[in-house]
Predict the structure.
Amino acid sequence: MKAYWRIKGPLLFVLPALFIGLAVLSCCSRTDEWGRYSPQEAGRLVIEELLSRTEFMMLLYQEQGANLESGSEQEQGANLESGSEQKQEAESESGSEQEPGINENSLVFGIHYAEACAGFGAVRLADALKDSALLERLAQRYAVERTDTIPNSANHVDVNVYGILPLELYRVGTGEAFREQGLRYVDGQWEDPLPGGMTRQVRFWIDDIWMIASLQIQAYRVTGEAEYLERTARVAAAYLDKLQQPNGLFYHGTDGPFFWGRGNGWVASGLAELLTELPQSDPHYSAILEGYSRMMKALLRHQGEDGLWGQLIDHPESFRETSGSAMFGYAMQVGVNRGLLPRRLYGRAVERAWKGLGKYLNEDGTLREVCVGTGQSTDINHYLTRPRVAGDLHGQAPLLWFAYSLIAP
C-alpha cells in the first residue's frame, strides 16, 4: 500500500487539475472561436426577443417620395391578437425620386420589410437548429389567418417582400397555406411588367436588390420554375450596370452620394442570395459574380480592426454600425460557403465580424448601434449624426441571417 501511494498518490491531485485545465482551455477555445456568443446562442436570443413582441412592425407612407413625416420614423405596430393596425411607421431607406410604374399618389402599407426579414431569418435558423418547437411558435406568430387580416398594398418592393417569410415557413414544412400566401406577393410583383420584362416595382434604389431578389428566389426554391431566377438575374444585372461605382461600392442614391453601410448591405446580401441559386449557364451570371466579387474586395479593404464597418463605409471616423456589418458578414460567409470567395482570406474577415458584433448584443437579445431608417442626403452630417438604437429589426434580421450562414453552410 505504501508503494502504491508513493507512486499513485500525486496523480490523485494532478489528474483533477489536468481535467480542470483542459476544461478551461476548451472554454477558451470556444470563446476564441466565436467571441462572446456562438451563432447558436446569439440566434436563440434574437429569436426569443422577436417572439416576445406582441405587435408587428408596420410600414406606411405615400409614394412620390414624400413620406408621411418627411422621412421621419414613428412608433408603429399591429396587434397580434386582432391583426388591427394600431400605430404606423413612415420610413424610407432610399430617396425621394418618384418610382417608375407606380402611381405618384400610391399609398404603400403592410407588414414592414424588416419584420419580414427578421421572421425569415428566424425560421431559417430554427430549421437549421432542428428545433421543431421553435418553428411551431414562429408559424403561430405569422399564421396566415392572422397576417392575411392585415392590409397590404402589394404595390411596392418594401411590402411585397413579405412573401419571403411565408414561403420559408412552407419550405420547412409548416403548412400549404404559407405557399399560396407567399406566391401571391411573388407573382403580383410581376403583373403588367415594363417593356423589357422588368417589374414595375423597379426604382433603381440599392435596397431593391435584396427586396426583389430574395422574394423571387424564394419562389424558385418552392416551385423549381427557372423563370423566377431568370427575371431576378435580369434585374440584378441592370442594377449593377447602372448603380455600382468604380470602387465596387454603391452610393445611397442620386441624392445621397455616400457609401452608406446598410444600403450597401442590402446589395451585398441580395447578390449573395442570388448567387446561391443562379446557374453558371445564365447569361447574366458572369456579370453578377463579377459585381459581387468587386464589392466583397472593397468591403474587405474597409473592414475595421474591430471587425465591423462604419456608418459610411469609406469614412473610418464614422461610428461602427451593426446592421450593415451583419449584412456584410452574411454576404461574405455565403460566398465562402459556395466557393465564390477564398476561404482563408474571407473566413478571417467573417470571424472578425462575428466576434465584433457579439460585443454589441445585449443579454436580452437586442443588438445595439443600429442606425435608424435613413433617407438620402447630400449632407454628410446627415449620415454621421444619425441616431442609433438597440433592438431595431433592421439589425435583428441580418444578425439572424449571419448566424444561419455560420451554422448551415
Notes: The chain has a mean pLDDT of 87. The chain is about 55% helix and 5% strand.
